[in-house]
Specification:
By secondary structure, the chain is an alpha/beta fold. It folds into 2 domains: 2-125 and 217-244, NAD(P)-binding Rossmann-like Domain (Rossmann fold), CATH 3.40.50.720; 127-212, Dihydrodipicolinate Reductase, domain 2. Helix content is 38%, strand content 24%. It has a 7-stranded parallel beta sheet, sandwiched between helices. A 4-stranded mixed beta sheet has the order 8-7-9-10, with helices on one face. α6 packs parallel to α7. The relative contact order is 0.15.
Amino acid sequence: MIKIIISGISGKMGARIGVLASIDKGFEITGGLEYSSSPVIGKDIGELLAIGKIYKKIESDFSKIAASCDVLIEFTSPSATMEHLEAAVKNKKAMVIGTTGLSKDEADKIKSASKSIPVVYSPNMSIGANLLFRVVEEVAKGLGENYKAEIVEAHHDQKKDSPSGTAKRLGEAVLKIKGEMPPIHSVRLGDIVGDHTVIFAGNGERIELTHRAHSRDAFAKGALDAARFLIDKEPGLYSMKDVID
């Protein structure tokens, strides 16, 4: 059984990861993390997730409970992710990182940490979105210079980073082939989970490639797949492509 600690356990993503993990016999939730002033600190994780008591309390200090897990799953803020990354290295614990809005310096710190621990780092954990990265690259290659690309992404109005990490990654797929980053248009409205469309247009036709997340379960399931993948892996920086393959 894979023992996991979920950082941001009371957030929308953290909670869905927790619920799905609780019904998967391959996982045991050994801890949950939240910021120190959160009103859920000290509460039973199972009661928070409405799955029944599991007699594990929500903590604010990862170092305090790190020994109880195999993998830390992290979907929080850049600052919290960096703090937990440092503790994961000290405690030799694998990490799944889905936090977005990281700076280049913070991404470099993840890369450096991966020399000591195995890390899956991806702006999007869903299988479909990661397949879209591949498809976009192939389409950009096939269409040639007469087709221009732009990206439209939409998320809920509480999402802090813009453009999304997924949109940036899609842009990088185009950049790799065409040598320039396509324009990215961001929409923040209502409770949209996550829509991404890459539009390739030339004279007389266009191709639109779209991924729509119907719920956060696609990302949560991907995060658990990534945690499962990391067991017994050597230190290194892995992507969802590695998990899928």
